[in-house]
Design brief:
3 domains; SKP1/BTB/POZ_sf
């Protein structure tokens, strides 16, 4: 009997392997082997079959179709694990919207990658136009302020699937801001009748300013300055949301025209005694909580806001008492001013405590003749109210330090 053929009853070992398979043979005939099946078997003097002392090599499972396949699968799995998490966690994510089938350029901000049209960007942005030209070999113009910034991006360029990939992290552009601008490029015509809320417009402004999308910059700046108009005649009782964001934008992006109105809105909003009208409730709910909004302000602007509130309150009280002063004529032609003062203290005075502009508008509606004011006093009081309104609005420039840049933290 040869080493490779051991009789087991009337069936030879190779025959048994063919009938029940290699795994069954190992489980029933080689119980004393200690090494796992996948590691193979090695002859040992102490290992023998129960009915014969002739040693036998276990069948090489790698030679069988199933064993070899399993071995290759294990090796491939180990190789995949050895390569680390990079294959399991890609370094980028395709943008869900701005991944165009006909895109011919790749951009990446943080871990988000965009596939867009080179010509569309270059036609709207002088910054992208210069970036692509310099990538193609054109020299930057002498004294170009964007040269250093563009060079930083050019150092990141790589080729991916035949397309140039530009990393924009060094530009300081935020991903959400860039999304807002690309959306405006696609849906801009819809903004004519339905202007987005301030945060979206602010996002468009920041990207358009930094990457020189001129038309979009002009659009965003016009919307922002109209919404936070510095014309006293544009102030109404309707409060404007996102005033804190407007202060931050005005400071950081040099839009001083919005600061006066934004500070005024913050001052009266923090002390508003009125419930929002139903039609205004949805818009006001879109804004951050007032306390959270104030957290966005620089500490220096928080101090200015406290001063503005104090000045507005003082100016309002002074105006009300001036309206109820003694008759300007000698001898006095009208009396009973104290009665009007009592009425105002009970109604108008607390309502416009930190909103003197709208408070003065309310005072102008009072028919002073019905309050026993003489003709001379009616004219004098009207002029006084108009002057007070203009003075308060002009004084805001100094109160908020309009010409003073906010110190860096």
């Amino acid at each position: 009997m040869s080493d490779s053929t051991v009789a087991l009853g009337h069936v030879t070992l190779p025959g048994l392997c063919r009938v029940v398979g290699a795994k069954s043979l190992v489980n029933t005939s080689l119980k004393s082997l200690e090494k796992p099946l996948c590691q193979g078997f090695v002859e040992s003097p102490s290992t023998s079959l129960e009915q014969d002392t002739t040693m036998v090599d276990a069948p090489d499972l790698e030679d069988s179709p199933n064993g070899g396949k399993r071995k290759r699968e294990e090796e491939e799995l180990n190789l995949s694990n050895d390569k680390g998490s990079k294959r399991l966690q890609p370094s980028y994510t395709k943008h869900s919207k701005f991944w165009l089938l006909d895109g011919n350029i790749l951009l990446q901000i943080e871990t988000t990658r965009y596939k867009v049209q080179r010509s569309r960007l270059a036609s709207q942005s002088t910054w992208f136009e210069k970036l692509f030209e310099q990538h193609s070999g054109k020299e930057a113009a002498e004294g170009d302020e964007d040269k250093e910034n563009i060079n930083d991006v050019l150092l990141t360029v790589e080729c991916v699937d035949g397309l140039d990939l530009f990393h924009l992290n060094s530009t300081g552009v935020a991903r959400d801001d860039f999304d807002a601008l690309l959306t405006a490029m696609d849906d801009g015509i819809c903004y004519y009748h339905d202007t987005p809320h301030f945060p979206v417009i602010a996002s468009i402004f920041r990207v358009a300013d930094r990457l020189q999308f001129k038309k979009y910059l002009e659009f965003a700046e016009r919307v922002i300055t109209e919404q936070f108009s510095d014309d006293v005649g544009d102030i109404t009782v309707a409060e404007i949301p996102f005033a804190a964001e407007a202060v931050v934008l005005g400071r950081n992006w040099n839009i001083p025209k919005v600061l006066k109105r934004a500070f005024y809105e913050l001052a009266r909003m923090e002390h508003s005694l009125e419930e929002p009208a139903p039609e205004d409730e949805k818009e006001s709910n879109d804004e951050d909580d007032p306390d959270e909004a104030l957290e966005k302000l620089h500490p220096g602007d928080l101090v200015r806001l406290l001063k503005v509130s104090k000045y507005l309150g003082t100016a309002w009280h002074d105006t009300v008492f001036a309206l109820t002063a003694r008759c300007t004529q000698k001898p006095a032609r009208c009396e009973h001013r104290s009665r009007l003062l009592l009425e105002l203290r009970a109604s108008v005075l607390p309502k416009y405590e930190f909103d003197p502009i709208c408070g003065i508008q309310e005072l102008m509606k009072i028919d002073l003749k019905l309050k026993n004011y003489c003709e001379s006093c009616v004219i004098a009081m009207k002029q006084m109210l108009e002057t007070k309104q203009d003075d308060i609005w002009a004084d805001l420039d100094a109160w908020i330090g309009l010409n003073v840049e906010c110190d860096e933290e």
